[in-house]
Amino acid sequence: MKRSLYAVMALSALGTVAPDTWATTVTLYGVVDANVEYVTNIAPGQPTVNPVTGQVSVGPGHDRVALQSGGMSASRWGLRGVEDLGGGVQALFVLESGFSLDDGKSMQGGRLFGRQAFVGLSSSLGALTFGRQYTPLGTALANFSPGAYAYQYEPLDVMTGLNYRSDNTVKYAGKFGSFSGEGYWSFGNGVAGAGEVPGQFMRDIGYGASLVYANGSFSATVAYDEYRPTITPATGATGKFRKAAGAVNYAFDRATIMAGYRWGRNQFPDGTVALHDNLWWIGGIYAISPVLKLSLGYYYQDLRTMKVTPAAPTVHPANPWEVLFIADYSLSKRTDVYLTTAYAKNAGLDLHSASLGFSNVYVLGQGKTNMFGAAVGIRHKF
Predict the structure, then answer these.
(1) Between β-strands 126-134 and 62-69, what pairing exists: parallel, antiparallel or unpaired?
(2) Summary mean pLDDT of the chain
(3) SS3 state of residue 78
(4) Which listed CATH number (2.40.50.140, 3.20.20.20, 2.40.160.10, 1.10.10.10) goes with 38-381?
(5) pLDDT tier at 358 (50, 70, 90 boundaries)?
(6) 57-72: per-residue pLDDT in tens?
(7) CA 123, CA 90: separation in Å to the nearest integer?
(8) End-to-end alpha-carbon separation of the chain, Å?
(9) Which range is the signal sequence, renumbered to this chain (predicted)?
């Protein structure tokens, strides 16, 4: 009885509850996306890094042709549910599972719902949700990236950080006129640890916020994100990884142009700077016809400071940059075919390098300084 009263009080803060109007809708949705890819100068496996000297050891680079899952979009399926509670109040949930279409395996480390898994309430005052969710920095930049977060070659991890999906998250999202905003707190982001350890409240936490302004043809956003991954599991010592970003876009009749900047600073538990970088990007999207769209983007990462461990020397590698081009042709509202290409210098595709701990398959081979990739694929949305 007491729990029911508390629930009614919480819902009353968002609007009047009318039980006789309750209704439930569940939607099954997803994307299946596959392509044949050619890539140059790629190493056969992940490199090793000497924690004292910072020296990277990697195998020789070769060309590769392969069937890949996800070019324009990562393959996924999900369930989205909404229950009308009356008075403009809704209960909602999302369960979204990522998978690799070429071999049928689950992504995100084998999680059943590794992309998203949350439940919450929404009203005219906004939505409050609980579970595994995207950070505000991740959602804010989606409409300001030239490739619209194209899965295969856009440097998403570099732009938003490895915690752009965070576990154990409480998130608020609201829209007020021309402004929309989000804010979140994660009790354990799940990147290098699950957090929620007794006596170690700050271990693996994360928090941040974003604000988006959209009025007619012009849009702009600012966002901040910080998280504390576990660096030393034995003691629970955490680092401090921070990012701040701003971006703008302007839409014409057939074209949209955009530009953005992201500042980043990662620190070890003792305060030593592990990585200090700046990322700039600029690009645009042009609709040649209602069914043919071209996208072009340029990304430049300024690596100011980088250290593998606090004891290792500071290194100043050559700054990576990448050019991305996409041609997307719609066969219907749900099915399209595409050509996506990218060229990266001083890093693998997606700008993956030591600055991200080589967390991606696009690792440059020994002695190589550039990588080119091209893929032809098909995508279907349901």
Answers:
(1) unpaired
(2) 92
(3) strand
(4) 2.40.160.10
(5) low
(6) 888 999 999 999 999 9
(7) 6
(8) 42
(9) 1-23
* Mean pLDDT confidence for 138-166: 95
Close Cβ partners of 298 (under 8 Å, ≥ 6 residues apart)? 146, 281, 282, 283, 321, 322, 323, 324
Q: Which two tokens stand for residue 61?
A: 């680079």
Residue 83 tokens, joined: 């229950």
pTM for the predicted model, two decimal places: 0.90
**Which percentage of the chain shows pLDDT scores above 70?**
91
Q: Nearest-CA neighbor of 351 among 325, 326, 371?
A: 371
Phi and psi at residue 269, to the nearest 5°: -55, -30
Confidence (pLDDT) at 275: 94
Partners of 121 in the beta sheet? 91, 128
DSSP string, 165-233: EEEEEEEEEEEETTEEEEEEEES--SSS----BTTBTTTT-EEEEEEEEEETTEEEEEEEEEE--EEET
Instruction: Provide the sign of the torsion angle of the four alpha carbons 356, 358, 359, 364, taken in this order.
Output: positive
Tokens in use for 190?
């799940």
Residue that the structure tokens 């749900």 belong to? 334
Confidence bin at 218 (pLDDT 50/70/90): very high
Query: In 3-state terms, what secondary structure has residue 143?
Result: helix
Question: What's the gap between Cα 187 and its chain centre?
Answer: 19
Provide the residue type at 243 as one letter.
K
* Structure tokens given for 382: 């349901």
Residue pointed to by tokens 């393959």: 75
